[in-house]
Amino acid sequence: MIPVMLGVTIVISSIVYAAPGNPARLALGDGASPEAVAQLEQEMGLDQPAHIRYFDWMAGVLQGDLGTSIQSGRAVTTLIIERLGPTLELALVAMALTVIIAIPLGVISAVRQYSWVDNTSMFFAIFWLSMPSFWLGLILIYLFAVRWQFFPVSGREGVIFTFTWWSFILLPAIATGTRRAGLLTRLMRSSMLEILNEDYIRTARGKGIGSKAVIYTHGMKNALIPVVTLIGLQVPLIFSGTVIIEVVFSWPGMGRLLVDAVLQRDYPVVQGTILVYSVIVMVANFGVDIAYTYLDPRIDYS
Question: What residues does the ABC transmembrane type-1 domain cover (predicted)?
Fold first, then answer.
């Protein structure tokens, strides 16, 4: 994990400082004198070679210091901490909705293969896959917030898990998770169909074990292994999806912070935000690896 993290930090620094635009010039404005720009570049360390800037930044990262925002003058760590909670809320609720929708639909579709339930589920799964998240978000805002006024248009209010909080987070979470739900539904169906045709499932049925026990006790647990793999692969997409959804719904998370920082060439904020996103994804993938050992005891990471 440590080598991967080092590679991520190198890539982040390389991309950020290769981007066009002078942060010092942007911070001071077009009317600033060359002397003032040069002085600010020196204060920001922009006059140093790239490898020196990287090592200086890494030294701060190891101490929990991600630098100072060029635009606001505030510590990047403070800005990220303020925005981290809303982003995690949105991503976790979106993933929960994805799993709650996809796994039951996939199982039911497999058990009732070629029935109207199966056909309807697969229709919606393909429809969800074909719908871009930002476009679905705009449709949800128009229908449920503007036209019918069931939900607020944008923002975030209320204490977590209260009715007010749910009213603000539900639409962006649906917009973020729906495409993933379509993909997981199709995978769960195909995985369950494969498991139901295994010899041990037929043996269990031949011994007179009830259909529900065969499906949920013997079949579903093994069918979840490829689904959990895909969930792990979807974690980066969920978090990258929250970036545009936070902009669409004016959700005060790290996604909006990152977009604003990119537009303003606020490089310390861009670096810090992408680094935190990377750490979250790595931790989530580690959690998926642990989940494998529960679903299949034959897997051993020791």
Answer: 84-292
Q: Does domain 80-295 have CATH number 1.20.200.10?
A: no
The pair of structure tokens assigned to 138 is 């705009």
- Per-residue pLDDT band at 297 (split at 50, 70, 90): low
127 or 42: which carries more pLDDT confidence? 127
For the chain, the C-alpha Rg in angstroms (whole number) is 24
Contact assessment for residue 204 and residue 218, using Cβ atoms and an 8 Å cutoff: yes
Q: What is the rounded distance in angstroms from the CA atom of residue 296 to the CA atom of residue 153?
A: 44
254 closest CA partner among 268, 273, 236: 273
pLDDT value at residue 300: 63
3-state secondary structure of 75: strand
Per the CB < 8 A criterion, the answer to whether 137 and 130 are in contact is: no
The single residue listed with the structure tokens 């043996």 is 203
Q: Tens of pLDDT along 248-268? A: 999 999 999 999 998 888 888
**Six-digit token string for 247:** 């902009």
Q: Are 272 and 76 in contact (CB under 8 A)?
A: yes
Residue with tokens 């959700």: 251
Contact 109, 185 (CB under 8 A): yes
Question: Which residues have a Cβ under 8 Å from the Cβ of 244 and sit 6 or more positions away?
Answer: 133, 134, 255
* pLDDT tens digits, 143-169: 999 999 999 989 999 889 999 999 999
Q: Where in the chain is the domain with CATH 1.10.3720.10?
A: 80-295
Q: What is the DSSP string of 34-64?
A: HHHHHHHHHHHTTTS-HHHHHHHHHHHHHTT
Contacts of 36 (CB under 8 A, 6+ apart): 28
